[in-house]
Amino acid sequence: MINQVLLRYDSIPLVKDIGYGNPAELWTHPDRILDFHVFLYIISGEFQVIEEGIEYILHGGEAFFLRKGLHHWGLPKTLPGTSWYWIHFYDKSDADYYGLDETTAFMVGPSAGHINAEQYQVKLALPKRMKPAVSHLLQVRLKELKELYELPGSCRPMILSLKTAELLLDLYQEAAANATSKADVTIGKIIQYLEACDPAGKFDSKQLADRLNMNYAYLSTLFTKKVGMSIQAYHTRLRIHQAMELLRHSSSNISEVSDRLGFSSPYHFSHVFKKTNGISPTQYLKQIYRS
What we know:
The protein is an alpha+beta fold and 291 residues long. It has nine helices and twelve strands. The chain has two domains: 6-176, Jelly Rolls, CATH 2.60.120.280; 182-287, Homeodomain-like (Arc Repressor Mutant, subunit A, Orthogonal Bundle), CATH 1.10.10.60. The strands form three sheets. A five-stranded antiparallel sheet has the order 2-9-4-7-12, covered by helices on one side. A four-stranded antiparallel sheet has the order 3-8-5-6, with no helix packed on it. Helix 1 packs antiparallel against helix 2. The longest helix is centred in the middle third of the chain and has 23 residues, at 156-178.
């Protein structure tokens, strides 16, 4: 989608201001180019804005993002009585996004284990326009944010920014869940297959392709694009996740876990474990309490 606002995993949006609009007369969006992004939530009525020549007519219950650095203006089309909340927020410069992979909800992978620094080197593309399912709860959250913005306090900027980041991430996840495409269904089937595999077994690309009745080269390219890692890397991550579970919840030593999961040697297992988690199995054991 064109002109989406991007967020980095390794930073949060920094709130500039939060407000509420409810003009009594026909209203025109100001003509401007901003150095911050704009989030809009239309409570009721009809709101008009133009971004880089593309006209948008927004209605009650819709959320919308305007991207910084673009030309925004309007015509006298926003109806009297229209009401909306806005949040203006800063982020990293556009140059800071170069080289980052764009991720999807599938990027999350196994829920447990260490998170490597490189896993934060990705970006989220927020939905340009959406209609949140539970609009009244979003209104309550925006009202609370506006009230917080109007209160004094030394920690106010950080609290506002953290709560805004949480709100934007919730919108992103809702939009991602609703945008299930044919490709997403295929990715889900691949992940389901990988998670059902014996972690001690070797990954068999032909078996996967036969199971889905699709070309493996296509599956591999699609998976890497959508998930941000190869199918083989995801399979390896699942094996290491299983290794972490065994180290945490059994009395098995490193060599026994290596054998149980089918690694060629404890040395190879340790190498893969460290590459995946950023620490060796020995270091991991020192950091945990075995159950």
